[in-house]
Give the backbone structure.
Amino acid sequence: MQNHPPNSEPPIGVLVVNLGTPDSPSVRDVRRYLREFLSDPRVLTMAPISRWLLLNLVILPFRPRKTAYAYSKIWLDNGSPLLIHSVALSKALADRLGAGFRVELAMRYQQPDIRSALERLEAEGVQTVVVLPQFPQYAEAATGSAVARIEEEARRLGNSFELVTHGDFYDDPRFVQAQAESMRPMLATREWDHVLFSYHGLPESQLRPIQNCLTHEKCCEEAEAPGRRCYRAQCFATTRALTQALELKEGRYSSSFQSRLTRDPWIKPYTDFVLPELYESGKRSLLVVCPAFTADNLETLEEVGIRLREQWRELGGSEFALAPCVNDSPAYVDALSKWVLAHTKG
């Protein structure tokens, strides 16, 4: 069923995609979310039987209760912060783009789901869908998995769409400007001893297949080769772009990686290992930002905003602040609208 007038141009669809969130902070809902998330072979990259054993014998019997408690600390009256920010972003983007566009929000895992979002766009007569994955740096476990699921669901609907996916935007000037603007108010409050850019981690095994990745200590700090798509290198590139935009002095900032899940080696340096090193070097005031995320969520608000803050205070640190993600800020809404329009010229 097409809801646009006869002989008019069909509306253009926009699909804002983020990772996902449980329906509630209950142990049951968190377990269901973790089961779907960690059953994805792009997330836990190991043999199927190993993944099943790890998930069902090690993770699901114990982790949901701990994770549910963490969610309960940040859950708001109207739901998950990730979902709240994502809904607000989608609505603001729809308002900015206007009547010729239909904006839908979907999560890779749980609700709102990708299939239902595509079905709503199809019912509106949409023929072209601009996909906006909310992951600045490329990782198979995030962007790769989300795009694969969107393509799979589009095939089930009969390939009625032309899918146009916006690529990695780790150093895109519009994203950099939006993230820099979210940091400036906190940078203006005081002279911070150190600014820490903390990114979501990945197992080293997911990076080693990339050509020349993790072959020497400085490999990811070098300019990224075209088509190489190294997540760690892109994270460092984000830090370079932000520190240039904010005019941060060399030696007053660094990058690290958080959210380790398994005992296998993950990309380094680890955020919780970096904090003692910073304290021992004489740092006492610390500003943290998490530019691997576009919306504040469990990893930013609880892992950094609560647990990392407690670790810093236990070390003896005096000041700690977490800069917000871009969320639904006007600068980020403007960035998304410009990317959509660039993909749909003519």
